[in-house]
Amino acid sequence: MTVMNPEKKVRDRGIKQAKISKRLLRVFGKTNAEYRLIKEGDRVLVGLSGGKDSLSLVHLLKNMQAHAPFDFEFLACTVSYGMPDEDYTALHAHCEAYGIPHTVYETRIYEISQETLREGSSFCSYFSRMRRGALYSYAQEHGFDKIALGHHFDDAVESFFMNMFYNGVLRSMPPIYKADRGFHVVRPLIEAREAQLRAFADENGFATIGDEACPAMRVEAKAPYARAATKEWLRQMEGEHEDLFKRIKASFKHIHDDTFLDPERWHRDDLLVQ
Asked: What is the dihedral of CA 224, 230, 236, 241, to 10 degrees?
């Protein structure tokens, strides 16, 4: 077993510390332990947009780095789209104040979108793919073995129902998966509720970056109606059924996939060759 370096307790003395609720710490720690997301010796690149979710993630990782019985490195990386007047000075200053290593990765995503994003098309998936691809490239170029994203349980539930209603598939967001480029993508907040992350940012008085930093605000593109509609539907359902998300979480962990209409998932001994 790895023994925690006693210097970890004092190395960050003098920098600011965020207030993190015990409940959020417990969910974060349990998720990492259960799915074995971040381990000894990992080099983790964290996507930091500056929103409440990714800000929560980097602060929780900073706390885990100080208290976990193993050593790992992480770097918060903000993808710059290359838009006019794009400025992450305040976000970088925030990271410096809290001792969070941070870099801004300059790209030409906005310029490229002018040529490849068709007028009236949906922008969310487009810019999400471009941003993810930029993170992958930075990770490869700088020797990171994992990428951490700030998706939470509300995101996973919304994606599940969006995939069902709009795409006709049963699919959600796994806590960890291996990307085609060889490294693992992890979601350490996947069992946290969005409200917990919003409360964390509010309690600490963090100035978060919202949709105003998205390139889609500067192009003619359709609003993400599907996600907004799904989020509102779930909000109404949870208002009527208090334990809705608890039940959904339980169902995500108890999947009887041989009960659906997919013959490849059935176990039929009557079809065995005699």
From this structure: -150
45, 30, 39, 17: which is closest to 145 by C-alpha? Answer: 45
CA dist 261 and 230 (Å) reads 25
Give the domains, in start order, of the chain with CATH numbers. Answer: 14-223 (3.40.50.620)
Amino acid at 170: L
- The one-digit pLDDT tens for each residue of the chain (274 residues) are 333 444 444 455 678 999 999 999 999 999 999 999 999 999 999 999 999 999 999 999 999 999 999 999 999 999 998 888 888 999 999 999 999 999 999 998 877 877 766 665 556 677 788 899 999 999 999 999 999 999 999 999 999 999 999 999 999 999 999 999 899 999 999 999 999 999 999 999 999 987 655 655 555 555 568 888 999 999 999 999 999 999 999 999 999 989 999 998 888 888 765 5
Contacts of 207 (CB under 8 A, 6+ apart): 90, 94
Residue with tokens 């100035």: 207
